[in-house]
Amino acid sequence: MKRSMTQLAKLGAAAALAAFVAAAPASAEGDKVGKSPWGPKDEIGTLNMMSDASRMEILQRIDAGKVYDLGLDLFVGMPDCCSAAFGDPTYQMYMLHTPARGGGGEELVSHSSEAISMNTHTGTHIDTLSHFGLHGKLFNGASADEALGARGWAKSGADKYPPIVARGVMIDVAKAKGVDVLPASYAITVDDLKDALAKQGTKLAEGDVVLVRTGQMGLWPDRSKLSLFTQSGLSLEAAKWLAEERKSMVLGADNLGLESFPSTNPQNFAPVHSYLLAEKGVSFIELLWLEELSKDEVYEFAFITSPLKLRGATGSPIRPVAIPVK
Prior knowledge:
Elements: H1 5-9, H2 13-23, H3 52-59, E1 68-69, H4 83-86, E2 92-97, E3 113-117, E4 125-127, H5 144-147, E5 148-149, E6 152-153, E7 164-172, H6 173-176, E8 187-188, H7 190-200, E9 209-213, E10 233-234, H8 236-245, E11 250-253, H9 271-280, E12 284-286, H10 291-296, E13 300-305, E14 315-317, E15 321-324
Helix pairs in contact: 8-9
Pfam families: Cyclase
InterPro entries: KFase/CYL, KFase_sf
Keywords: Signal
């Protein structure tokens, strides 16, 4: 029996994921991983579109002034995509060493440090090509049998990713529609993207980092209003338009999972994820803070970020910035 993501949400945690996997095939018939045009050793997909020339071009256009921080704070109790949905661990932080308390300050030197634990898909983060596959294979053909170990992937991990410096464009779908936040589970269409771009007076170019605003960060950090199962986000058709027709290098959004949930495809609980990562080699960023860009109506900028070199990781926390350009 096939179940919707809404039904699965009621099951809770790991039981929901197990039920979905048991209820549906791994992917629709005919879906298969893409072959990289950058050769058999490629592990970063469309990030190969960057070059020294493309980075220099956007950096030379920087208009000195405000720098927009697009990253979220990480804190205990923060909303996340996957603790409620799949039983994944939440963000935790605790002190390892602290100064003596109540001692009157006799210590000459105070020493403090802490430890953290988290899913790598917590807070503002980038999904790498090893995050989703089809039929046990990643983009460009790496198989789980060959490349997956107990401590990560030997292929397409966060450690293989270069710093990202590129032209960035925000598509403010929520503002174009005249709403603070898109309705729950709303699937953004190609026409929605085109309409927002027209109202902004913005054009996309090959190799852009394209960030889509749904307005959901206006609800942050209210966990009761931010659930993976009710996320508005990109439809598969909109993702295809950005990846194939507009040849975007990286995508991103201000929501928990880039795409809208629940999926309408009974065979694939995250069709945009598998399409972008496994078929097209397009990485993407989730949980971006786009509210200040929207307020100031900044739609074009230099986008700069870099994943942590987490060896074999399927995702990495990042702290991206946007700097307006001329």
